[in-house]
Amino acid sequence: MKQSDVELLAKDLNHQGGIYCPSPKADMKIWNSHPKVYLDVAHSGEAKCPYCGTVYKLKAGEHFSGH
Fold first, then answer.
1. Mean pLDDT over the full length of the chain
2. DSSP 9
3. How far apart are CA 30 and CA 16, in angstroms?
4. Whole-angstrom Cα distance, residue 64 to residue 13?
5. What SS3 state is found at 23?
6. Are the C-beta atoms of residues 45 and 57 closer than 8 Å to each other?
7. Are 63 and 39 in contact (CB under 8 A)?
8. Domain map (residue ranges) of the chain
9. In principle, which of 1, 10, 15, 44 could form an S-S bond with 5, CB 3.0–4.6 Å?
10. What local confidence, expressed as pLDDT, does residue 25 receive?
11. What is the pLDDT along the chain (67 residues), one digit of tens a residue?
12. In this predicted structure, what is the pLDDT of residue 1?
């Protein structure tokens, strides 16, 4: 896994199946980063931030089931 890849558990996603970047999960300091952007991870299992290139992906075997 590259340094810019972040493995997520289903419980790390919000109720819509996404996460925001910058994220503490990626060990980013929000005050020293790009604007906050919503990434839909549940739809395809991964999403790439258009600002920093960090890829957020569900860990193998994890499944998101929204309510």
1. 88
2. -
3. 22
4. 8
5. coil
6. yes
7. no
8. 5-56
9. 1
10. 87
11. 455 899 999 999 999 999 999 988 888 776 667 899 999 999 999 999 999 999 999 999 998 886 5
12. 45
Closest CA to 43 of 12, 14, 6, 18: 18
Q: Furthest-apart CA pair in the chain: how many Å?
A: 34
Is the CB of residue 41 less than 8 Å from the CB of residue 18?
yes
Q: What sign results for the dihedral spanned by CA atoms 62, 20, 14, 41?
A: negative
**φ/ψ (deg, to 5) at 30:** -60, -35
Angle at 56 between CA 51 and CA 59, to 5 degrees: 175
Place of tokens 């996404």: 18
The alpha-carbon radius of gyration of the chain (Å, integer) is 11
The DSSP annotation for 25-61 comes to GGT--GGGSPPPEEEE-TTTSEEE-TTT--EEEEPTT
